Amino acid sequence: MGISNVFGFGKKEESKDKEPKTKTPLRVPPAVSALRARIDSENRENFPNLDRYKDLERDAQAVYGILDAMIANKDHADDAVRTRDELRSKLDALGAKIKRNVNESKDYVENTIDYLDRKNTRNSAKTLFTEFLDAYELFLSTCKEGSSGQGATLDSATTIIVNTLAALHVRFIKVYTQDSEIQQLREKAIVRISELAQYCEANAAGLESKGLKARVEANLSRLQNAVNKLSDS
Q1: What is the rounded CA–CA span in Å between residue 162 and residue 60?
Q2: Are 28 and 75 in contact (CB under 8 A)?
Q3: Confidence of residue 116 (pLDDT cuts 50, 70, 90)
Q4: Residue ranges of domains in the chain
Q5: pTM of the model
Q6: What is the pLDDT of residues 197-211, one digit of tens each?
Q7: In whole angstroms, what is the distance from residue 128 CA to residue 167 CA?
């Protein structure tokens, strides 16, 4: 017996039934590969398409059927399970991404509409306030430069001021109590009427000489009543 036989280096005869069995690799069905590629492609989009997602969901059912059959037949069952779970996970992630985009888009639209509504409301209030300012300037200029024949101008200016303040009060100031810009209009109107009263009081003699003092005082009383309503709001 040679030394190679003593130490077991000699040629060994292997029994046929002891030959290692080689597992054939999983051949991924084309439908599975195609579905995975489509899901991955859609997932790479910043804004995946909802209709395409619905198509993927429908086609996935057929692919799951193929994989379920492989699992039932014990044909690379472990690989088939992993592949099926992977596809479902990818598809779920895609659906969540689409839902998130829809919610964010909805929030954006709602916020934009809310912003535009607030802007339109403020613009309407400012339009009324501009009418108030125009009438205020007419009243003031009449006091400075007018004559006894312009008493009707004071009455007209006062009516416009009273009406615009009433509209501001009812339509905006009482309604939009948390809107700082609208509430600032209220404060500005109160200050302007107060300044007007102070001017007329300081220039009472001049108004008397123009024959406007009594008319001015009567109209200032109307304006003060309008301002009191704003102060109480």
Answers
A1: 71
A2: no
A3: confident
A4: 27-107, 117-232
A5: 0.61
A6: 999 999 999 999 988
A7: 8
